[in-house]
Amino acid sequence: HKIDKHLASLENYDKDERYMGTSDLCNLLQTDIKIDGATELRICTAILKRLDDASNDVQSKAIQCLGILLGKVQPAQVYEICDKLCTLLLDGKAELRDIYSIGLKTLVTDVPEESGRGVAERLIRRLLAGVNGDKLEVKLECLECLTDLMRRFGHEVAGEHRSVVSALLVQLAHEKKNVQKRATACMGASSVVLNEALLDELVTCLLTDAATPGKADVRVLITAIGQVSRCVGHRIGKHLGAIVPLFVQFLGDPVDEALQTEATNELRETCLQGFESFVLRCPLEIVPHLNVITNAAATFMRYDPNYCGDDDDEESGGEDEDFSDEDYDDEGGDDDDDTSWKVRRASVKVLAAAFQTAKTDQGVAELYATHGAAVVLRFKEREETVRIDVVECFTNLVAATALASGAASGAGGGLKGEERPGSPSGCGGEHQTGALAGLESVLPGAMAAAVRQLEKGKDEKTKSAVFALLRQLVGALPPAALAPYVDKMLSCVVSVLATPKASNALKLDALVFTRQALEALGGQAASLQPLVPTLLPHVLALVQGDWYKLIAEALRVVSAVVRVLRPMDQEGDMFEGSAQGGLSPQELEALVGPMHAAIQPRLEASDMDQEIKECAITAVGDLVASLGDLMLPQLPRVLSLLMDKLRNETTRMAALKALASIATSKLPQLDLTHILALGAVEELSLFLRQQSRPLLLATLETLLALVEAQGASMDPALLAKALAEAAPLVSDADLHLTHLALKLSSQILACSQASAPGQGPTGQGGQLQLAQALEGTVLPKALGLCASPLLQGRALSALLDLLRDLVKLNQPGTTFEDLYAAVRSRSEAGAPLPRAAVANVGLSLAALIVACAPDKAPDKAPFAATVQALLADLAPGGGLAEAGSASFQRQPLALRTLGEVGRHCDLSLVAPNLQQLLLASFDSEAEETKAAAAFALGSSAVGNMQVFLPSILQALAADRNHYLLLAALKEVITVHASEGRDFTPYLEAVLRPLSIECVSAEEGVRNMVAECLGALVTLHPDLLLPRLVAMAEKDPNDELMRWTVASALKYAMTGPSLLQSSLPALLPSFLALLADQDLGVKHASLMMCNAAVHHQPLLVKPALQETILPVLFETCKLKLERVVDLGPFKQKVDDALALRKASLATVNTILDVMPDQLDLPNFVNPLCSALSEGVADISLLSHQILAKICAHPKLFKGTVLASIDALAEPLRALADKLLKKKETSGTEAERNADHLRSCLRAFLALDGLAAEDPGSVALLSPNYKRLKEGVTSDERLRALVQVIQVEG
After folding, report:
1. In whole angstroms, what is the distance from residue 1043 CA to residue 1050 CA?
2. What are phi and psi of 1122, to 5 degrees?
3. Which ranges constitute the DSSP H helices of 679-786?
């Protein structure tokens, strides 16, 4: 009934009625209404008729309704609408042709995927007929519709691709420019779906026509080639050898006056835009032509025929020459007719693309040598938009320098940008890399040009770009390199901040730069401090301003200024004195008052932006922590305000950090008793009841700082309350919180011990009170934690420290005997403990025993008696019990405990028969007991090498228990390596049995030998490494020896840096194992490379490109399948599966540590092969790799977008496959769900990268579009995507 009513309204004479009827019909169709076939036909006919309506509003609403209708009606109705619209477009009323065209484009855009093939087949030939026809308007509309059709469904009409290409080539020669323009756009959309042969034919034809004089409009052909290159990406790379010289030819001579026309400028701009596309889309294929392209771009970057200046004068330098934007006004002709700036802008963008894609240190250094100075000189550019592009271009080069030099000079984590380039912590000390040297060579000119722009330029956008450049320079250069320019940079900042007409955005840029500069150059305090009195008043004026962003940033600058005025020494233990040339104490005091006066109103105000509140709290915290001795009268008021902020939920976190900063201050004059009197400890103790983890972490850290600073003067009752509130946080559910809570407990005990007996609140009585409080609160939780299998790291260390402190305190209830019995009971109550839990209990018992050892305490009885009791558990029958009972673990526990004790104390004095007992334990039936005995034997040997080591070596000569004896020997070596002990006296004796066991038939024995050799390499690299090379090359048929050598080097990589050893020279000999024919040796070599990349990146970096990466890429595609006959059935086995996993794992590690070293263009094919794998492990790893690649858009964006079609297809196929699997339950269902989530994470990473470049080839890739449409149209996939996005 409603539909009939709306259809009747469509025929009303009143246009408003027709409009409302169409609108109501639209709304109705968007509901879940069901429509029969006859009604569908009536609706379609009525809507199509409204396309001829006299009212434009009705026509627009009809087109909107048409898009909705396509998803409701049957395919037959869709095809009928398609035919009708196409007929109207070709033969309908001329005045309504634009309406018909919009309707047809709406149909192509909104038609469901399942109807796409039919629509494309119906439209393609009729649109081509319109394109080839004589009617200009029809031709234009058909070209536009054909572009949309080829972009979405071009892959569905492969049989018509040649006809499309032929028609478009003809239209490129059309006399009308709008036809040429639309034909070019259509050619770009069509080129994406062409097969390789037809694409090559198209490009060859375009090149041939462009090289033939008079054949066609060269500008159009060049534009078409550029459009195709932008769309197909790396697929056009094979033609660059012909394209680049042709483009360079058409650029012509910049000094030829005959070519200084608008048409030539347009052609040159098109050629240069093509070069930019080649550099970004074909990073591998463009390398041979890069010098030619960048040289041409550098030449035309200076192309300015209307400027009468002398290029020779420009190139000669002129760094001190003054200029302003008006200097060019009378230098040339009419700027309104001048289009040369478009050529210069396109040239600059070519260089920016080259700078952006430069990855290696050497490559960036070469760019500085050839083009760095030329780009700096173009800071004088008279056209505003081009000048901004020039500054951003040089900023790209500086950013590439930071990336390349950081990878070249940082060690380990420095490759990820954690080390500042050129910093002493990086490898090489004061040595500067090539890229940094190149930057420093042009730095004087760059700084002079930047300062001129800031001082005399009038364009604020240019000044903002210059500040962005300065921020990059601060991040890329070592502080010493920028020290000579600090005064100039900050004077420019002062000039901007002091200019009333300067915009807030520009002032914000200036403040951000100032903060970053002060933080980065803090080590140059002597040169910065004299500038502070000039800078600070302008910053403080902004603190009192109106715009919240400026106020917040100004407060951050104040914090940075404070740290410059009172810098810390390198250890961070105490303040440096006023450096020579710095400010005197009187001058410092004169600055503190204004800073406090500016911050105080922001600190007191409550109705203020949250960001300002937090910045004000941070600023006052830094001020008090660094300069509090100069503002002692104001200190009580400041502390009171901080307490108020602490009680406010919105400012609580900032106040906690400020209090922690103040409490850790090294200023002896700071008295925090005022804040203690205000109830700071009670307030912080209450915070420990909250659920917010960040709040708990900040509270514990602040309490630690306060107790360390003022604990001796605190009331024991307050400290006892803090212990009670911290106790619930001690659990294995959050080991970080546990670590802090236990550390707080130890700190409270330390404060009680630090007080002299009878003096202060925490004197002798306070010790007893705190010990009793600890016994009833934290201690039970800590004792329960001893038996946790999850306990490790800093939490475990904090627990052991607390136990030692309690033994030393020796208070009733926490004596050694009490604690030992309590810990021991944890292993005997309830079910047997896991192996890790037994080890933790053993560590806890050993910590207690060592704390009361003869050299640590006067009472020897507890130590000796306890060791004898443990030995009794090892005696035959002493520790035996029924398997599965708690007491069954007495032997492993006793062994673990004795081993830890023996590591610190010589047990041979109290247990002469210990060696025999430990060796006898190797015959136990329990594997856990054997492993514990091996650990105990090795650890005990550390305490007395002369007694225990010979017995281990002697036992190795026998033909039994080799694995366990080697495990004991490994413990000896690793302890020496980790603690830096001298192993030289025992080296030769240990190497003899190890060299024999290298060829053991048991892989477990060889692996243990490899661990021992790896640990020895870290102790004596120059002695061991040549021996390993000789062992690997000794016998070509001994693959077991080579396997052991490769595995040994893998374990050695996890130790200290080997960069200064003989390993760099010997590394090629070890990398030769990558080409070994034995699969086991090859796998061990790949694992060695993975460990080297992860732990010693600088060591293997020189060999990555030439040796390691080619092997990895080849192995990623290696398959060695064979069929195994298992009787009733046959099974296919792939012997190369482990090799592929190891290769992909190594690539994954490279992306983590030094992503700039990955040769992605050559890795695309292996990655696509891995993505297509049917093996889940390979597929999951490849998804992770793809996601990490997409996370580095500056490095890989161009290559990924150019290859997105190949990358998207396996993801789409996998998603379809997993969705079609029958619903299962249990483990298999979980695996399938994890696999699908992994696939979707890779898709989201790919989609995020494509979204950053809306005009990229990604939008034209048929496989990518099918993948995205499949994800968005499937309800289950949409739900999974939402979950993944929420998880982050």
Report:
1. 11
2. -145, 160
3. 680-687, 693-710, 716-726, 735-754, 764-776, 778-786
Residues 364, 894: Cα–Cα separation, whole Å: 61
1132: helix, strand or coil? strand
The SS3 of residue 653 is: helix
Name the DSSP letter for residue 31. T
What sign results for the dihedral spanned by CA atoms 131, 135, 141, 144?
A: positive
Retrieve residue 238's tokens.
């094979």
Using DSSP's 3-state secondary structure scheme, residue 909 falls into coil
Which of 1241, 1204, 1272 is CA-nearest to residue 235? 1204
Cβ atoms 623, 599 nearer than 8 A: yes
Identify which has the larger pLDDT, 222 or 888: 222
- Say which DSSP state 306 is in: T
DSSP annotation of 575: B
DSSP state for residue 1212 in the 8-state scheme: H
On the question of pLDDT at 317 being above 60, the answer is: no
Name residue 1131's beta-bridge partners: 1124
pLDDT tens figures, 351-407: 999 998 887 788 888 999 999 999 999 998 888 999 999 999 999 999 988 887 765
User: What CA–CA distance (Å, rounded) separates 639 from 652?
Assistant: 14
Place 578 in a pLDDT band, splitting at 50, 70 and 90. very low
- Written as one letter, the residue type at 16 is D
Give the Cα separation of 895 and 873 in Å (integer): 9
Q: Which of 249-263, 360-374, 383-397, 634-648 has the lowest mean pLDDT?
A: 249-263
Name, in order, each residue with C-beta under 8 angstroms of 1217's C-beta and a sequence gap of 6 or more.
none
Q: How buried is residue 787: exposed, middle or buried, by Cβ count under 10 Å (0-12/13-18/19+)?
A: buried
Reference 1209, options 1259, 1265, 1255, 1160; nearest CA is 1265
172-181, 667-676, 797-806: which range is least confident on average?
Answer: 667-676
The token duo for 978 is 């980790």
Residue 104 predicted with pLDDT over 50: yes
Beta bridge partners of 1181: none
Greatest mean pLDDT among 497-511, 556-570, 1122-1136 lies in 497-511
CB 100 within 8 A of CB 62: no
Higher confidence at residue 1201 or residue 743? Answer: 743
Are the C-beta atoms of residues 1211 and 1242 closer than 8 Å to each other?
A: yes
Instruction: Give 1046: exposed, middle or buried? Use CB within 10 Å, 0-12, 13-18, 19+.
Output: buried
pLDDT of residue 1253: 65
Output the furthest CA–CA distance in the chain (Å, rounded): 115
Contact of 1257 with 233, CB cutoff 8 Å:
yes
Radius of gyration of the chain measured on its C-alpha atoms: 38
Token pair belonging to 89: 């477009």
1130 - beta bridge partners?
Answer: 1125
d(CA 36, CA 3): 12
Give the integer Cα–Cα distance in Å for 963 and 956: 9
Q: Are 367 and 292 in contact (CB under 8 A)?
A: no
Task: Select from 344, 258, 334 the least CA-distant residue to 299.
Answer: 344
Q: Which of 337-341, 512-516, 872-876, 1170-1174 has the lowest mean pLDDT?
A: 872-876
Strand 1121-1125 to strand 1130-1134: parallel, antiparallel, or no bridges (unpaired)? antiparallel
**Residue 402 · residue 1155 · CB < 8 Å:** no
Rounded to the nearest integer, the mean pLDDT of the chain is 83
DSSP letter string, 1098-1112: HHHHHHIIIIIHHHH
Contact present, 695 and 648 (Cβ < 8 Å): no
State the amino acid at position 46 in one-letter form. Answer: A
- Closest residue by Cα to residue 557 from 537, 572, 586: 537
Q: Which residue has tokens 């309908």?
A: 92
CA distance 657 to 642: 11
